[in-house]
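I hope you will forgive my troubling you with a question about protein structure. Here, with my thanks, is the record as I have it:
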Amino acid sequence: MDDVLQSLYQVVRERREHPQEGSYTCYLFDKGLDKILKKVGEECAETIIAAKNDVPADTVGEISDLIYHLMVMMVERGIPLEDVMAELRRRSLKIGNLKVMKQVDRES
């Protein structure tokens, strides 16, 4: 799985470094951080709705869109994929990672 994510991240980085006319990724970089963050938010909401509607194919598509837009954001902000993967690996090694629930969580 790392290979697919790494490949996608590399394509996004290449589009940032070597813009190509007609590229949606380049369009996002041209519009700037606000546009990129707006798309991350939209894709997050669409992922939630697809999951709630229990349509697996739609949910997979929306998750994929969200991951792509997150990668555009990461490249824009200079966050290497390796840093995120290292953090996920670090977290996966924790035992007993249950956090104390907040009052709000208990009431919902």
